[in-house]
Amino acid sequence: MDTGHEVHVLSVKWSEDSPVPLLVTVTPRADACSRPAVLILLCSRCSATITSPCSSLILRTDAHLSPETIGAPNPEPPLVSSDLLAWALATYGGITSYSELQDPRSVQLHLGEDAYSPPECVPQEPFNAIQHLKTEVFFHGVKGCSRSDAQSTRAAHIVRLQSEPSSSITEVNLSVKCPRNSADDQMLILQSKANFTWSLSSECNIHLLVSGNYKMPLFPSLLPGQLLPDTEQDLIAQAFEKNYSVIASYSAIPASTHISLEIHGHETVETPVTTTPLVITQPPDLPHQVLLTLKPWKCTDETMEIVITRSHLEPIKDVVNITLRDISCQAEKNATHFMLKSPLSHCGTSLEGRGYANNELILSLAKDAVLRSVRVGFQCEIPRELFLRLFPTADFKAPQTELEINKEAFVQASMRWMDHPADLQLKECWLVAAGREPVLLVQGGEARGAGVAVLESPTGTHGRKVWRFRFTYTVPEGGHIPFSAILKCKAGLQNDTIFEKVLEVTVKDAWRPLNYHGLGLAAVLGITFGAFLIGALLTAGLWYIYSHTRPISKLQPVSSTAPASESSSTNHSIGSTQSTPCSTSSMA
User: Fold this and answer.
1) Is the pLDDT score of 71 beyond 70?
2) Which of the four pLDDT bands, split at 50, 70 and 90, describes residue 55?
3) For the chain, first and last CA: distance in Å?
4) Domains along the chain with CATH numbers
5) Best CA proximity match to 41, nearest among 70, 1, 2, 15
6) Is the peptide bond before 581 cis (omega within 30 degrees of 0)?
7) Where is the TGFBR3/Endoglin-like N-terminal domain (predicted)?
8) How far apart are CA 113 and CA 304, in angstroms?
């Protein structure tokens, strides 16, 4: 502290030769360049460019300097035999900062002293140097792998951010670059602490799976991520589960404020595409980015549903219609949403991949009286879970959640299992209602109990197992009738892997309409009688008032000699002025 000049030491080491020159920027603090400073850069096997607004900066380096470097064209190299730190201390009698850097791309060094630093310089890691040093480094710890039974070339890139508990970094800016016209078959998985924020800037058509929160230039509001595993094996397993068989890169990176990921693709021969002037078969980046960020599609084992909020399409502008690959499947639209729902067997949907439904969203854009189309391909994940539906009729259309007493109900349990659907078995199904004993409906694929029958499964369900049965829910006379019940089924494999699904239903009684939930028969009759009594009293009261306030003129006519027209007129006049009969009589 308080020496004649500052001394800053940078010791740079390389895992491999740097592809670009090292850029070092030295910036002063508030007192500008009033105090002399020395920069010692030990960087063998590298070329460097050193810039600073302080022309008095003294350089000692063994790096090959570019012509843009400040100071002397051939600065004196440090005479180091083994220990750079010991040499600097012996040469200058003390140092201001000492840093060892691995594979840096650029370094920004802030001049100035730190009164809270220890008097002895002992290099340690991790060390918080954020006050005086910022570096951008090449990350060479990238790993990759693929499944031995991989049936696709869909690739995943995984970035796992390793944050120390004491780290103050809560947000990272991540920029992603891809080759032009790269295929839409890649996923980027970003894992961090739950309270972390990813600020994404991407030029890629890439699917995202993010933990914590994230934001993009197109969407200023913060978007919630999802909970992701925090180990290498589990993250890779997550990618495999989503049918990404190649882990193109796995990077476990220390907490950083900025990360740049550049994805290189294999060179392919481009085939010219002939299109009409009004159709864009290679979609612009903007619709791709918006829709792949929103992911408005949701699939079950038999349907695909798409719901898009109109306000989220504002960056694209001029969207007048949306269809699927089969243009006859058009989205319904209102003032706030585009909505579309179709079976997976319709609208051009293909089920080629494991657990995914493939289709395209075709956006019709109208601008300056010209209509054009933009195609955005997407994949909708089909959850590997058991689905349970209740139907009122045997045609198994229009599922509902109402179960009527003493009437047949039809149940369908289904699940997609591309590996070996024949191995799936329906273990059991129960009907459970509060206040009543659980009713076993099906067990081991066979009917149990009265009124239950196992039905034939539909044909042509490739990769999907479907079970159907019917039953009648009865309640003994005078028994308790529940307002709701739970239909619970379990399916599983021979290796005891179990999938369970619960469907809540409302119990409907013909003598108890659903609109009167919560009111008993006595309450309904009481309300009806009360309304009748109030009406009768009001009618009697009005009749009493009317009978005691009739006009006197009706009982005592004023003149019997006047012509009929005059008598009528006189009676009307008296009736109108019944409060002053004496005055009227005097006038007569």
Assistant:
1) no
2) confident
3) 123
4) 6-137 (no CATH), 142-262 (no CATH), 294-381 (2.60.40), 387-508 (2.60.40.4100)
5) 70
6) no
7) 2-137, 143-263
8) 62
Paired with 412 in beta bridges are: 389, 468
Residue length, the chain?
A: 588
CB 503 within 8 A of CB 390: yes
Give the C-alpha separation, 189 to 138, whole Å.
20
Q: What angle do CA 470, 492, 419 make, to 5 degrees?
A: 110
Instruction: Give the chain's mean pLDDT.
Output: 79
Provide the 10 A C-beta neighbour count for residue 134: 15
For residue 101, give both structure tokens: 């850097």
The residue among 85, 101, 117 whose CA lies nearest residue 7 is 85
What token pair was written down for 545? Answer: 């008032």
Residue matched to tokens 């009806």: 528
Q: Which residue would you say has higher pLDDT here, 73 or 247?
A: 247
Assess contact for 305 and 340: CB atoms under 8 A: yes
Rounded-to-integer distance, Cα 284 and Cα 374, Å: 8
Task: Provide the 3-class DSSP secondary structure of residue 68.
Answer: coil
Structure tokens at 490: 């379990």
Q: Assess contact for 273 and 198: CB atoms under 8 A.
A: no
